[in-house]
Each structure stands twice: as structure tokens, then as C-alpha cells.
UniProtKB/TrEMBL annotation, chain A:
Entry keywords, A to Z: Cell membrane, Membrane, Sugar transport, Transmembrane, Transmembrane helix, Transport
Domain called ABC transmembrane type-1: residue spans: 66-259
Name the record gives this protein: Multiple sugar transport system permease protein
Membrane-protein topology: Multi-pass membrane protein
UniProtKB/TrEMBL annotation, chain B:
Family the entry assigns: Belongs to the binding-protein-dependent transport system permease family.
Protein name: Multiple sugar transport system permease protein
Protein localization: Cell membrane
Lineage: Bacteria, Bacillati, Actinomycetota, Actinomycetes, Pseudonocardiales
Organism name: Lentzea fradiae
Transmembrane regions: 12-35, 72-97, 109-129, 149-165, 259-281
Main location: membrane
Bilayer topology term: Multi-pass membrane protein
TrEMBL record, chain C:
InterPro entries: Bact_solute-bd_prot1, SBP
Pfam families the record matches: SBP_bac_1
Keyword check for Transport: yes
Keyword Transport: yes
Coiled-coil annotated spans: none
Protein name: Multiple sugar transport system substrate-binding protein
Keywords for the protein's UniProt record, in alphabetical order: Sugar transport, Transport
Length: 273, 288, 459
């Protein structure tokens, strides 16, 4: 144990500690403000109370909005993940002319559609399709915006799944569907799980589309509700916002923990071709 | 090539549902948006009743608009500072450092980094208000200068630091898996040859993960260039000092109702994204 | 956007396009005899959130009451309430999208300032065109100045929901410490600056808060530039032209320079994202001397029980004065004092299936009983004189606004270009706060204005 080694070791842990502090400090607000009798935009040791929690649970739409978010995001996420996995697999295995170009174009167009400028086309289109006020329709729009990036990431991932696996499976007479279900997906599972979480998180925070497309306040998701939490005077209602922020964050955290434990949360899972 | 025995027809069937959804809910409105970009369309007022095609006027106006050029510059700074450099370096650094630490510590750090990635944007905005606000903000308290209004006095720096915090997780994840693909024997050889950490990264690791670096840089650059979260923190202010393009577009579209002009700027943003993608493709091809 | 394009492209996508809203029936008394009808009211109010009181009033009082009244007539009425709680711009976007696509609620609450642009776009139409006969005994209770809020180019589009007025609020405690009178009424801008100079001697006190910059948005225009500009005698929109870099505008920016360049105001506060909220907080903590605001500040901000920034001693500590013109007689219309006002308007959607019923519902919403009920025991300037006479009695500040401010007040020009002009004005004040000279800021303002509204429309 040379002194130099000690210094390097200490330096290393100081570095890790600084990085941890950088990521952890902003989150402390979520732990303190919800339970503070006078929550503000700042960090302080709370004057503990549960009044804010009661106030939030008394809010007529707080809890329903979380349920709405779940419905909306589960649909959008499942659609995105399933369709992206299928498409990514096929694009990874079969040479289609102009495949890469197509993917890039779609990736680029997705940035237009997720922007504000596209709201009129999307609104008018949904109106004519009769999908205003439809959770399902809104979820499809959100999924459409996420699909290119999801395919893009998953295709990279599918590329890394060794083809020899599939060839052996085929030798034993497995159909393409079986190959996908029993050989490729299990290997690709951490990547699919990661895309699932990524898609869910993205859909979970989407404000503008649900705001424009879902008219009934009882059907709107939490992202929209969080922006309505103002008091009479038009200032942010800090009694409800911290608690609601906490509640609103829990599902994504739980989903991440679950997926991480069950499937691993990794790209490429360390398989070498 | 067709190791899975898919066949073109079945492959097409696999791709079709995704393409259909993308076609209807993405390509169609996106093209329509680009069409609006050549009109003087507004949400209200006389131009809402009778929009006219004005050709490239919007684009020309945008290029001449000092607010637009200001935005382009800020967006470039934002992408370069927070994504290309910030998230990339910190993400790789974390992936590299965490290879060797105890699994429990590793999980804790990764968990924290990922948490900042998965929390909803609106919540994250409040978290950072609590860090950066004047008088009561955590940062001011820690540094002993509560009078500093970080978001006003250092808006772009604040946004860049914020976006590094927000987005590093993706790079970290990608590099962690990329590093797992570097043969341990080569790392061992480098260590025995007495190579420093930096030399090892440059000469042994980088050649293996070059493709990952490019994919990662492309995605985070595109996401950052289109990121709307800065609006929640600074709303583009003070005095347009942090008005990145998505924020400018939002303000033109919603606050001024000038949808034609905003759509034209979306088109320009798209072209900017295209440039990023082309650079990436070029680099990738050189690798192959 | 032409609809044919929509259809064509949709067809290309292989989709069956749905029918386009309801067919437009021109006659104003379609379905007038319906024994069963459904109306939807849309408001930027939501229970438990933004404008919660208004939402609860609609949900718990208006809707049951109105349904009951209809039932007594043998009519089954269903009133649906579409609640929103979003930012004003988001809400406006939604309403405009609704109206232009032929959908939306039957009765829609909008900000009076949107009236003109919606009307110019053909998204709303004059009330008489929509419902026919607009006779109503309530009109005579609504003062002409307030009715103006629901009018555009001389035509009536809707019924105002109340109004407000702008004054200078000042902290009497700080005034006493600085040796200023408790009953203060400046006669010109210089009086305000002089008071500010005295307040500056107090430690930790910002003498004057005159909203500036883009972060405060419309609050900068409405509680800053426009009332000050009105004090120069020239309205922002005059004879069909927007005011460019006139001498009057430079005077206004000069006042900003004196305040923010001369240490009488806090420049950083003007640039913070939550600067306006913070200015309220500082005023309530006795750290701001003079502040230009609407009566909303008195009712909802420093209000001792439920205010955002409560002042338990509001009634003794907060004074108010009319906003002076540059010098006596220099204001618009030769006035010594000036003010600006705004307020909401309820309009009827031209596409409603039940115009007569919607009009009946609108009258019910504006009946003395309903208006009084909507206040839920608080005092506020409503649209109705009879209600005001009753509810403002105990409130000297609001009585002052009703009696002294409303007669001299002005409204913003409700044109589609106004938001752009407003943004350019905000930018000009931001430039001055950031250190540019008034001349420079005015030049940049003119350039921005020409870009926004065209050379021909700038005076």
C-alpha cells in the first residue's frame, strides 16, 4: 500500500462522492418540500407535517390524473415497444434498399412532430379521424413520435445478437416467429426493457398532446394536471405541487426498479458476435 | 444475410405496423407542418381566415431575424456543451470508473444517475428551481452567495449543467455496455505494459467502442437540439439569453400565434438535425 | 389550411376522413323549441387549481340552478363544463383550434384582448348574428366602458365578466419612515421619482417596481408600458397605426431608464422567471415602496387571509393612488391621471346547435343573482353596477377603482397584431433595463415592429 496508491484511492472516492452529490442534491427537494408546512422553492429542513399530503388527496383530479397517465402511457409504451421490436428485428436481418436512409429520415421527422409547430396538423387530423378525447388515439400519436428513435436504438441492439444463434435454431426447425420469440427476444430482453422504460418515461412527461387532444379534465394525465396547480392568484400552488410531484414520480421509479431487477437495464448485454 | 429465414415478405409484415403508425401520426403531420412553413398561417386574426402561400419568405425572414440567429448559436452551444462534451464525457467517465467499484456502490451511483433521467420534466424543473433560485436556492446556500440568481445571471451555464445532470444516464448506460465488449485481455496487456488510464482509453478502448461513441453522440445531440425543458426553467430569458430553438419555436407558435413562421423555423431546425446526422453517417462510414 | 388538402392527403394515407363538424345552419333560431338540449361551457378554470372559485361556482351553483329552472319549464337541459387550468397562451391556442375546426363549447370564456383576433379570423361572430334578438334588461346594469370589453369594431360579441383598474400601490409604513405623506397622490412622473429617491435612503428597500422585461410577459405591458404610455397622451394604437419610435415612447423608456439605471428599481428582479411573484413577496415584506398593479393585487395578493403574499396589516399599511400622467393634463384625452383595464368575456360559439338556449344560459350567468353568487362572499369589480353597489361598499380600495379609476381607464386594442406589439414593447423595456439607451431601445423596437406588423401599419 504505497502512499501514492492511497492518495489515488482517496481521490477516486472523493470524485465518486462529488458525482453522487451532483446527482443527489437536486432530488432532496422531493424528500423535504412535500412534508414541509411552508414549502418553498429552496431546500431546508422541513417543519414536518402531512397537511400537504391530505390537501393533495383532497384535490378532485389528482389521483384520477395519475390513473389516466398510467392508461395513456401503458398503451403508448406497449405499442412503441412491440412495433419497434418487430420492425427493428426485420430491419436488422433483411436488407431493404435505402434502409438506413429511411431510418434517418424518420428520426429527423420525429423532431418536427414532437415540436410545437406540428400541433395544428395533429389537432386537425385527430379531429377528422374522430380521435379527439380518445386516450387510445392520443397514445398512438405519442407512440408515432417515439417509434423512429426506438427502432433506431433497438436495431443497433438486434444487430449485436449473434446470427449463429438463429441459424442453429433454424437447423432444429424453428419458425421465424419462434426464433424471434424464443431466441432473439430473450437475448435482446435488456434492450427491449430499456426501450420500454425510455418510452414510458417520455410518454409520462408529455404535456402538449394530451392537453390539446383530451378535453375532459377527468381524462387528462398528470403532466397536464401538474400545470394547472395554481392558486387563486395565479401563482404556483406550493402546497400541492411537491406532494403531487412526488406521487407523479413514483410510478416511473417503480417501473425502473422493477424492470432493472427483472430484466436488467442495459444495452447490448455484453454479448459478442 | 437472411439468417433468421424471414424472407422479404415476412420482414415487410414485421415492419408494416410500425411504418403505418409512423406514416399516419408522424410523416403526415410532419410534412403538413413543413407545408405550413411556406404559408403566412396564423392561429387567429385575418391570416387565420385566409392563409396565403408565401414561399420561402418565412425562411428568409428567419435567417435575417437576429432572434433566430441568436437561437441557432445558443442551440449549438447547448448541444456542444451539454451533450457532445458534457453528457459524453461524464457518461463515459462514470462507465469507466464504475467498472471497478463494489457492486453496491455501483448500483447506488447508477441508480441516482438514472433517477435524474427518468423523473418527469416538469418535476425536474421544480427540483432545479430549488437548486438555483435566489435567496433560498441550495446552490447559493452551499456556495455562501444566496444573492446570486443563477438562472438570470448565468442562464446558459445553468442550462448546460442542468442538461448534463438530466441526460448523462443514457450515455452512461450505452458506454457501460460498450465497455463490456472490450476484451479484458487487451486491458490487462495495456496495464502490464504500464499504460496510463488515458493511454488505455485512447489506444485500447476507443477503437472498440467507436461505433457506440458515434451512435451515442448522434442521439443525444438530436435529443438535446430538440429539447424543450429549457423553457420550463428560464422560458428563454433573461432577454433571450437562453432562448434555444425549440423554445423560440414554441414562443412564436403559441405566444405569437405565428404558425407559418414557427413551422419554417422547425424546417430549419430539421435541416440542422440533418447536418448532425450527415456528419455522423460520414464518420461511421469512414469507420467501416 | 385548406380542407381539400387535408382530405386529399388523408385519402392518400388510406384513411376514411370523418365528417367536418356540424353542418352550418344559418338561422339563429335553429332548435329554439327543443325540449331537450345540451350546452357546453368552456373556461380556463379548474376545481382545485387555477381559478378554482369560478370552477366551483359553475359546477355547484350555476349548472344545478339552470337545469332546475329549465326543468320547471318542462325542458331537459344538460350543461357540460369543460375545465381547463392551463397557462393563458395554451388555453387560447386550444380555444382557437376548437373554433376554427367548427367544434368547441357553446359558451366560451376568453380574455377580452383575444376578442378582436378571434373576430378577425371569423372564429367568433357578432352576438346578434349568432343568436338573433339580443334584448336583455341586464345591459343597462353594465357600464358602457365595461361593455366595450365585449365589443370589436363597434359590434357586440359577448358579455364581459367583470373588469379591473390599475393604480399605484404604496407601502405607508415605508412612506412614514422616509418622511413621505400617508395620503400620497403624485401629480406627475417626477413626483413618483422624487418619492423613490427618498425611499432609496431606507436600507434593503427597492423604491419602485415598474414591471419590465420579457419574463413578466403581458404584465410588463399592462402594468408597465401601457399605463405609462397613456400618460404621454398617445395611445399605442391610434388612427389605424401602431406607435413606432415616437417621442412619447422614448419618454416612456426614459422613465424606465431613470428607475432602473438610477438605482430606484431592481433590474435583476425584472429578468427572473418568477419575478412578478417575487415582487409581490417583497412588497408584502415591506421591501418595495411603490408598485403599479391592478386591483387584483389588493384582492388576491396582499389580502390578509387568502392572499398569495398575505399582509395582515393590509388595510392600514397599503395605500393607493391614481397613476399620474407625465405632467398634469398630458395624459390621453388631456387627462391628469390614467389607467388601463382588462377582463374576461363570455362569447357564444357561432357553431352552437342551440343559439337561443346558449343566449339564455349566458343571460343566466350574468344575472345579478349569479354574479353575486360567483363572488362567494368576497369583493370584486363585477360587470354589473347593481352588484357592485352592494358588494364594494365595505371595500374602500375597490370603491375607489369603481368611482375614480374606471371613468378614466382605457382598454388595449384587441387586434391580432397586439400580442406581437406587446412583445416588442416588453423587449424594449428589457433592453433599457439591460443598459441600452432609450433611443437605441426605441430604434430596435421600431425595427421589430416593422417586422411584425409591416411598415404600413407603423405610425
Amino acid at each position: 500500500m504505497s502512499p501514492l496508491w492511497m492518495v489515488r484511492r482517496i481521490g477516486f472516492y472523493v470524485l465518486v462522492a462529488v458525482v453522487m452529490a451532483f446527482f443527489a442534491v437536486p432530488m432532496l427537494w422531493l424528500a423535504s418540500a412535500p412534508f414541509d408546512s411552508r414549502p418553498g422553492l429552496g431546500l431546508r429542513w422541513p417543519d414536518w407535517t402531512l397537511d400537504n399530503v391530505t390537501a393533495t388527496f383532497d384535490h378532485p383530479y389528482a389521483l384520477t390524473s395519475l390513473v389516466n397517465s398510467l392508461v395513456l402511457c401503458v398503451i403508448a409504451t406497449v405499442v412503441t415497444t412491440v412495433l419497434a421490436a418487430l420492425a427493428a428485428y426485420a430491419l436488422s436481418r433483411v436488407r431493404i434498399p435505402g434502409r438506413d436512409l429511411l431510418l434517418y429520415l424518420l428520426l429527423l421527422l420525429s423532431s418536427v412532430v414532437t415540436g410545437t409547430a406540428a400541433m395544428v396538423p395533429i389537432f386537425v387530423m385527430m379531429l377528422q379521424l374522430g380521435l379527439i378525447n380518445s386516450q387510445f388515439g392520443t397514445a398512438l400519436v405519442i407512440a408515432g413520435g417515439m417509434l423512429p428513435a426506438a427502432i433506431f436504438i433497438l436495431k443497433d441492439f438486434m444487430d449485436a445478437v449473434p446470427r449463429s444463434y438463429e441459424e442453429s435454431a433454424r437447423v432444429f426447425g424453428a419458425s421465424p416467429r419462434q426464433v424471434l420469440a424464443h431466441v432473439v427476444l430473450p437475448v435482446a430482453r435488456p434492450g427491449v426493457a430499456t426501450i420500454f422504460v425510455w418510452a414510458f418515461v417520455n410518454a409520462w412527461g408529455n404535456f402538449l398532446l394530451p392537453f390539446l387532444l383530451l378535453r375532459d379534465v377527468g381524462a387528462q394525465p398528470a403532466a397536464v394536471l401538474l400545470r394547472t396547480l395554481y392558486d387563486e392568484g395565479g401563482s404556483a400552488n406550493l402546497t400541492v405541487i411537491p406532494v403531487f410531484s412526488l406521487l407523479y414520480s413514483i410510478p416511473v421509479v417503480v417501473l425502473y426498479l422493477f424492470v432493472n431487477r427483472r430484466y436488467g437495464f442495459r444495452f447490448h448485454g455484453g454479448i459478442k458476435s | 444475410m437472411d439468417s433468421a429465414g424471414l424472407g422479404v415478405r415476412r420482414a415487410a409484415a414485421f415492419v408494416a405496423p410500425a411504418l403505418l403508425l409512423i406514416g399516419v401520426f408522424l410523416v403526415f403531420p410532419a410534412l403538413w407542418t413543413l407545408y405550413i412553413g411556406i404559408t403566412n398561417y396564423q392561429l387567429t386574426g385575418p391570416a387565420a381566415a385566409n392563409p396565403r402561400v408565401v414561399g420561402l419568405d418565412n425562411v428568409l425572414n428567419a435567417v435575417r431575424d437576429p432572434l433566430f440567429t441568436n437561437s441557432v448559436w445558443l442551440t449549438a452551444l447547448f448541444v456542444l456543451g451539454s451533450a457532445v462534451i458534457g453528457q459524453n464525457v461524464l457518461g463515459f467517465g462514470l462507465a469507466w470508473l464504475l467498472r471497478t467499484v463494489r457492486p453496491s456502490l455501483r448500483r447506488t451511483v447508477e441508480g441516482l444517475v438514472l433517477l435524474s433521467w427518468i423523473l418527469p420534466g416538469t418535476v425536474v424543473a421544480y427540483l432545479w428551481f430549488a437548486v438555483l433560485s435566489r435567496d433560498t436556492g441550495t446552490l447559493g446556500m452551499l456556495l455562501g452567495s444566496p444573492q446570486t440568481a443563477w438562472l438570470v445571471q448565468y442562464p446558459m451555464t445553468s442550462l448546460i449543467v442542468f442538461n448534463v445532470w438530466r441526460g448523462t444516464a443514457f450515455s452512461m448506460l450505452l458506454y457501460t455496455s460498450a465497455l463490456a465488449a472490450v476484451p479484458p485481455s487487451q486491458l490487462e496487456t495495456a496495464r502490464l505494459a504500464g499504460a496510463s488510464g488515458w493511454q488505455t482509453v485512447r489506444d485500447v478502448v476507443f477503437p472498440h467502442i467507436r461505433g457506440h461513441v458515434l451512435t451515442n453522440t448522434l442521439l443525444i445531440s438530436l435529443w438535446t437540439a430538440n429539447d424543450f425543458t429549457p423553457f420550463l426553467l428560464t422560458a428563454g430569458g433573461p432577454n433571450h439569453q437562453s432562448e434555444v430553438l425549440p423554445v423560440l419555436i414554441y414562443r412564436q407558435a403559441l405566444e405569437s400565434g405565428q404558425l407559418g413562421y414557427a413551422s419554417a423555423m422547425s424546417l430549419l431546425l430539421l435541416l440542422g438535425n440533418l447536418v448532425i446526422a450527415l456528419v455522423y453517417l460520414r464518420l461511421l462510414r469512414r469507420r467501416a | 389550411m385548406r380542407r381539400t388538402t387535408t382530405f386529399g392527403l388523408l385519402a392518400v394515407c388510406g384513411l376514411v376522413a370523418g365528417c367536418l363538424g356540424q353542418p352550418q345552419q344559418r338561422e339563429q333560431d335553429r332548435n329554439a323549441d327543443a325540449t331537450e338540449f345540451t350546452l357546453t361551457i368552456v373556461a380556463n378554470a379548474v376545481a382545485g387549481g387555477k381559478n378554482s372559485r369560478g370552477a366551483n361556482w359553475l359546477r355547484n351553483w350555476v349548472i344545478p340552478r339552470f337545469t332546475e329552472l329549465q326543468k320547471a319549464k318542462g325542458v331537459t337541459a344538460t350543461i357540460e363544463f369543460e375545465q381547463n387550468g392551463a397557462g393563458d397562451e395554451d388555453y387560447k391556442t386550444k380555444v382557437a383550434l376548437d373554433l376554427k375546426t367548427g367544434g368547441g363549447g357553446d359558451v366560451v370564456e376568453i380574455d377580452g384582448i383575444w376578442l378582436g383576433e378571434l373576430a378577425q379570423a371569423g372564429q367568433i361572430r357578432p352576438l346578434a348574428d349568432v343568436v338573433g334578438n339580443t334584448d336583455w334588461d341586464g345591459w343597462e346594469q353594465i357600464p358602457d366602458a365595461v361593455q366595450g370589453l365585449g365589443e370589436f369594431e363597434g359590434k357586440r360579441y359577448g358579455v364581459p365578466m367583470g373588469t379591473d383598474g390599475r393604480v399605484l400601490f404604496y407601502n405607508k409604513k415605508l412612506f412614514a419612515q422616509a418622511g413621505l405623506p400617508a395620503n400620497w397622490q403624485p401629480r406627475g412622473w417626477q413626483d413618483v421619482l422624487d418619492a423613490g429617491a427618498k425611499l432609496k435612503t431606507l436600507p434593503g428597500v427597492t423604491p419602485i417596481q415598474l414591471n419590465a422585461g420579457t419574463a413578466m410577459g403581458e404584465a410588463t405591458t399592462m402594468q408597465g408600458v401601457l399605463p405609462v404610455l397613456a400618460g404621454t397622451g398617445k395611445p399605442v394604437y391610434d388612427n389605424g397605426k401602431w406607435q413606432g419610435d415616437s417621442a412619447e415612447l422614448k419618454d416612456v423608456l426614459g422613465l424606465y431608464e431613470k428607475i432602473y439605471g438610477g438605482g430606484l428599481g431592481d433590474p435583476v428582479l425584472q429578468q427572473e422567471a418568477k419575478g412578478r411573484d417575487r415582487s409581490f413577496q417583497l412588497f408584502s415584506e415591506n421591501r418595495i415602496g411603490v408598485l403599479l398593479e391592478g386591483d387584483y393585487f389588493w384582492r388576491s395578493v396582499v389580502e390578509p387571509r387568502n392572499g398569495v403574499a398575505k399582509m395582515p396589516d393590509r388595510d392600514t399599511a397599503v395605500g393607493w393612488a391614481l397613476v399620474p400622467a407625465r405632467q398634469p393634463g398630458a395624459g390621453v384625452g388631456g387627462q391628469d391621471f390614467v389607467s388601463m383595464s382588462g377582463g374576461g368575456v363570455r362569447v357564444i360559439n357561432p357553431n352552437t346547435r342551440y343559439p337561443r338556449q346558449a343566449w339564455e344560459f349566458l343571460r343566466f350567468l350574468n344575472s345579478a343573482e349569479a354574479v353575486k353568487e360567483s363572488l362567494a362572499g368576497t369583493a370584486q369589480l363585477t360587470q354589473r353596477q347593481d352588484v357592485n353597489d352592494e358588494v364594494l361598499e365595505g371595500d374602500p380600495m375597490l370603491t375607489f377603482v369603481a368611482e375614480k379609476v374606471l371613468p378614466i381607464t382605457r382598454y388595449r386594442p384587441g387586434l391580432a397584431d397586439y400580442p406581437k406589439v406587446s412583445a416588442a414593447l416588453q423587449q424594449a423595456t428589457a433592453d433599457v433595463v439591460a443598459g441600452k439607451s432609450p433611443d437605441e431601445a426605441a430604434r430596435a423596437y421600431r425595427a421589430a415592429l416593422v417586422r411584425a406588423v409591416g411598415e404600413d401599419n407603423v405610425g
